[in-house]
Amino acid sequence: MEAEIKTIKVTIDNITIDVAPGTSILQAARMIGGDVTPPAMCYYSKLEGSGGKCRTCLVEVAAGSTADPRPMPKLVASCRTGVMDGMIVKNMTSEKVPDARAGVVEFLLLNHPLDCPICDQAGECHLQDLGYDHGKEGTRYQFARRTFKKEDIGPYIQLHMTRCILCYRCTYVADQITNKRVHGIVDRGDHAAISTYISKAIDNDFSGNMIDVCPVGALTDKTFRFKNRVWFTKPMDAHRKCQTPGCCGKATLWLRGDEVFRVTARKDEWGEVQSFDGKPGWICNTCRFETKQTSSWTIEGLTTISRHSVIGANKYQTLEMPKETVKKVMNGVEPKLLMDIHSVSGVNNPDIHLSEINGPANSSDFKK
Ligand code: SF4
Ligand code: FES
Prior knowledge:
By secondary structure, the protein is an alpha+beta fold. The protein has helices at residues 25-32, 97-108, 126-134, 169-177, 209-213, 285-290, 326-329; strands at residues 8-12, 15-19, 58-63, 76-77, 87-90, 151-152, 157-159, 183-186, 193-196, 219-221, 234-239, 250-256, 259-265, 275-276, 279-280, 298-302. The chain contains 7 helices and 16 strands.
């Protein structure tokens, strides 16, 4: 007789699900999906030990469990807190979380330069998204920001330490999927920095995956730097028979016309590499940096762009809309505030087509 798998109940933002024991609050929230899921800058489900560094995934635990329904006194990191039977969690329904998250974003941006207009990660940067969702327009920081010289770590990767948020993901990649790690976090506190040990080069077959896991623009692909904006390119799923042991050979080609500007691993809706046959789909450096001819790949079709990425804007039939959870969170009640902006702003008059106006639009264009 098969042993019965015991599940436990957890309620997140008024939505209850059954999960296996040992599931974290973040993993349970990802099972529900949509806005119920807290953002995660350092947790990466395919990297063992990741999480617990950035605090962006903070949530409120309104009841610890059925056995002990007391609320937890402080907000907790959802990526590192396991669910208990009867636990009640608040993310988007919490009054405390948005404020705390805005504080975390402010801290993450203390030293991070606001150089999105020249950063290769713009458009696919999790910190940029987080800044838009929770950030404040000003800064209270009055000291000089710490700055670092750009560092080449091997032939393909450039480290721009000034942008690093010390999430540790790249060190876990080096530890867990390459056969030697020559970089890590050196020094402490405000001096802490990612660096190679005495400027050694990272020359492992799988080192390029560090670029994919970096949530910001700290590690960039030297073969793609400043060549194009990601939203001008067209991502296509493609595969090839790769001979490198451990490489899944399934990638996303970022094309402009027929030219392949960059090759990355395929990402899922959480920005992590997709899994194939139960294994993370890491790709080798040969696929990533040295196979940039479309003829070397079998193109499968347009990449499905999930979440709210700018890359998908106006481009995709396969665009995956984010899961809508608001009604469920509000126990079936429709949101009260639905405003038709067309009725309050002439600028949004649907009869006026901006594309037909010569030059920049001005107020006289909307008085017609
Ligand atoms: S370089 Fe990127 S991946 Fe590595 S610790 Fe910094 S932010 Fe994280
Ligand atoms: S994602 Fe949980 S602390 Fe960073």
